[in-house]
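Q: What does the assembled structure look like for these inputs?
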Amino acid sequence: MITKTAEIVSEQYKYGFAMPEKYVYKSKKGLDEKVIQEISWKKSEPAWMTKFRLQSYQYFKKRALPKWGGDLKKINFDSIYYYIKPTDHPAKTWEELPSEIKETYDKIGVPEAEKKFLAGVGAQYDSEMVYHSLIENLEKQGIIFLDTDSALQQYPDLVKEYWGTIVPSNDNKFAALNSAVWSGGSFIYVPKGVSVKLPLQAYFRINAARMGQFERTLIIAEEGSDFHYLEGCTAPIYTTDSLHAAVVEVFIKKGARVRYTTIQNWSNNVYNLVTKRMRIEAEGIGEWIDCNLGSKLTMKYPACYLMGPGARGELLSMVYAGLGQHQDAGGKMIHIAPHTSSRITSKSISQNGGRTSYRGLIQINSKAEESKSRVVCDALILDEKSRSDTYPDMKIYQQNTQVEHEATVSKIGEEQLFYLMSRGIDQMTAETMIINGFIEPIVKELPLEYAVEMNRLIQLQMDRSIG
Amino acid sequence: MTKIIIDQLNRKKSKRTLSVGKSESLVYLLLGLQPGSKEVTINLNGKGATAEILGLFIGRQGTGQIKTIQRHLAPDTTSDLLIKSVLFDEASYNYHGMIRIDRSAPGANAYQRNDNLLLSEKALVNTRPELEILANDVRCTHGATTGRINEANLFYLTSKGIAKKEAERLIVEGFLQDVLERIPDQKKRNELAKQLKRKLNHVN
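A:
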């Protein structure tokens, strides 16, 4: 396995900000059946996957763009490269990154190695040894933690059994697109009763640290297992790609518990359109922690399907929208079995002309007796150019239930600000303190180093908007 | 001077738009004692305008469909919405509310609340209380709850020797009372209370 790992590692160093002309292989612009067949062939995929991709492409063509949410009309599907095989050598240097991105890296204090790696310029990587022992340790417990392409090669039956079963390829236009052209993403399998103490980080898996353009993640938590998966990072991810459409499927068996944390910080030219779903069986617990800071437009509504009695779903969502950004995020809780419970906590901040929208669905089906759901959304609007929306939907087909929704939208409280400033704190610092307090319930659930970075990042956004 | 408008939910689908001008005050009540569909838009056009939007739906079968739009267009405007539904038998209820605060309405205060009580296994509720806030010097909150009669309350009343049916009726009356209490006219309030009682005796 170590050799395999080494292969993955070395192959991965090819990823980066390499200029397109230096790629070893690049499909032509736009999409047709030939491009899809080529992608599948280059990856030596089993026939069923090629078929799945082609079928998905048909769905993609037929599906209309959603008429709600953000403005998607400007996406030009014909001008996108759908598959790029990276070069053998990382080409772009740290210096070539936009200065704004570099500055942010420095200010939030991303570790040097991670910084270089994210920029795609690191040839040697300090954590390599840590990574090896980590993987070895996981393997001993029977855990599979791979990129999805490798998983399809090594565990085709396991992948096939679950693939596309909670996010069918015809679910929506972007899920169909992902199903047709997916590449990369994480595959995790945790056996029965195994509990993983440290978070499984895409960053440690190295080859997925840079989120792919059409990544596909599949997670299987067997009975009674327990772990935390973390993807993304607080540092902004610079990319020239304009469209990212990911699909994530998480299967939580009886009594298992999975926490899935995402920190999305794409550069502000990216459309981020993601379909994420968990299927939770009896007594299982599924938790989404979803932080969205970057992108031009995000449309993402992580969902929990509560399939077995006693299942629980939770979503903590935090969004920030600045100049030219629209964050249309929220979640869905679908109660199918009795005694299920769910909770959504959403915190949003809009500033400098940014727009945040909470969009959510709570559905209590007729068999879901004794179920409970609670949604709390708080929004801060920091100036008169910005906007905040709340679009909740509650569908209740069962009498024996309790469903609650509440939301508030306001600016920073005058009294709070006055109180802090009367203590000699300047306005800027006082505002930042109040905002950090506002997002605290979500940030405190992040691993420490990310929490620290998140607070610094918010502060930086504030500084920028003043300057 | 506060203007009071009492409107009825009719089987015929209808739309109504009301405007509240500078320093004016409106109380609007939509009484839903039969299935039907209504869309009400309240435009707060003048500085300091206030509106109270109230609604009741008591259903046994068929669908009550209510859509409300609280539109704040001028500074320092206030709107407060409370709509409650009680659903028996095979009733279904569909609420879609929108608070829209335009950039031209700093100092706006908006509130929206929808509570639904389910008294039957076959009753259905779909509620969508929405907000679109384009100004920042505002205070806007909303909430929605859906559930059945609180077991503890029911137990308390029945333990005092009140029959279950009667206890349920008392709880429902109390639930709806919150809406009636907001009508600033004693005579109208009493009249409405009587009307509701008759309706509840009939459905329960």
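Chain B has a mean pLDDT of 94.
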